Amino acid sequence: MKALLNILIAIAGIILAGSLPLLIAGWLVGEWRWQVYFESIRTTLEGLWPIGDIAFFNFRAGQEMALFPNVFAYIAYSLEILFLALIVAVAVSVALTVMTMLLQEKVRERVKMALYFLESIPDLLIIMLAQLLVIAFFKQTGILVSKIAVAGDDRIYWLPVLCLAILPTIQLYRLSMLTFQEEERQMYVELARALGFSKVYIVLVHMFRNAIISVFFQSKKTMWFMLSNLFVLELMFNLPGIMLFLSGNMHPMGFLVTIFSFFLPMFLLYAFGEWFFVSRRNQKAVG
Amino acid sequence: MWKQPYFVIGFSILAFFLAGSFVYEWIWGNVPRQIHYVMENGRAVEGAPLSPSWQYPLGTDQYGYDLLGKLMLGAKYTILAALAVAASRMLIAVPAGYLLGTYLDKHRKWLSSFADSMHYIPLTLFAAYVLTPVLWMPEEGFSTTLWERIAIQVVMMALLTVPIVSILIANEAALLRDKEYILAAKTLGAGRFRIIRKHLYPQMREKIAVLYGQQVMETFIVLAHLGLLNLFLGGTKVSYDPLFGDPPMSISYEWAGLFGSTFRYLQGAPWLPLMPVLFIGLAIFSVSLMMEGYLRSKNPDIKRTRQTAQDEPVVDWNRQQLREKMVRLKNEDFPK
């Protein structure tokens, strides 16, 4: 019930944001265009109804095309890249964290410091360096490891996923380091150590279960950050994804369709995750 | 704060760019050096864009302008804009957050799920979407002046994440508000405003400073992303000439524009897009250095006390004693 209310409020927020440029265009000439703003919201919502009739300008085909079901190919490609990168980032960062936790305190602090400064690398730099490296490697050896841009109906996967995953990995790595270290100060870890369990066992079994929950909740910010990166990535690799689709359709309807296409899966993911972790925690408290 | 090497290094990098930018303009004027080709033994060996050399440390752009000069001239726009965006964001979000956390606590729940919906809108996309009518030159030319546009852009970009930041502060304030000393202050008759001013604000000063630093870094990134979309700080000059249309150009030499307008040269002249992004990265890096230095100056002893406790011989001796006693007890319980 609460989740339903949340989703309604979130949808309202997105719809209100969709027509903002009209208000701003009004401010530029010094007037409040509330009427135009609400009118635009109304027409957008009305336009949504016969859902099969929505037509958008397709920049690849160069003409108006029906939105559904064409748009699903774009959405699927974007989501594939996004979630593949997320999975890679989570898996790598958690594995690295567990390994780092086994090291000495001093080394850990160094690693954390290095990660903190690595976070300041702009994503654009990573993408450009990756493209340059691929080309340089190709020139040297004649092997093309991956295409650096999409032409036609191509799909490229691993290079964009890698570029998208690097920065979130660094962020999540540092974040989960902090969480695990916080967890290490808890009493139960000390007890486990006193009982003679090995360090590996404590980290992997006891601390892992508790720390992963707060890593999950904090990963929302990382997701947000990844969405911006995905946008840039699609532009720079010319990936036929939903974000690139939007940049050809900068009007309230296009905005709504784009935002909803990844709002729904992400919201489901987080709602499910919250339910999963919370119910598990409650079960334990009872049992 | 000024004794922390991290802070000083970060500060001097930023200060160098800012001061250098103004000094450069003061000495050499606001047009960088220009060269069309390099002559060697009476023959032209290289035409613009020149690759980096001793004379032109970062090379030149496609029209032969010195890239280092452009970057130095643009530094002030980019850095000041990022600082201003973050500052105005905090100026709005901090009071709003405190209001939400104290006076309007009833509404905090639904407002926070409202702000939560912002987490599904990519910031860059939102910024581009909202700023396009402001920054993209219409066919009949801009109706606003350069400084007006910069001001509008700064305010817009500040407003974009105000909901998220103020909810963050409100939640933090609500957590603190349930502490016992605040209850005590309330019992003694302190009003809400006094509690904010005397208890909540001093408690959260460091958090707010760190938050400010994060906002500055985020703004740099968003500015760079906007550059990629040809939305430059202070507006994009668009040529509507159907035959000889120039590519969209930045009006000032700010870094995002330098990157955005040369991104297509990545393979041919990689220094053109790489250098501005590298400079942006350097600016972000110096902000994170300053943040780290600031935090270390505020709570320097946490680590030290923990280490000394470990090195203390008495503690060690106590542990030894305890261990021996336990071993002895165990042996008594289970005689071999």
TrEMBL record, chain B:
It comes from the Bacteria. PROSITE patterns: ABC_TM1. Pfam families: BPD_transp_1 (PF00528). InterPro entries: MetI-like (IPR000515), MetI-like_sf (IPR035906). It is found in: Cell membrane; Membrane. One of its GO terms (biological process) is transmembrane transport. The chain crosses the membrane at residues 7-27, 77-100, 120-138, 150-170, 208-233, 271-295. GO terms for cellular component: plasma membrane. Keywords: Membrane, Transmembrane, Transmembrane helix, Transport. It is a multi-pass membrane protein. The keyword Translocase does not apply. Residues 79-291 form the ABC transmembrane type-1 domain. PANTHER family: OLIGOPEPTIDE ABC TRANSPORTER, PERMEASE PROTEIN, OPPC IN A BINDING PROTEIN-DEPENDENT TRANSPORT SYSTEM. Belongs to the binding-protein-dependent transport system permease family. This is ABC transporter permease.
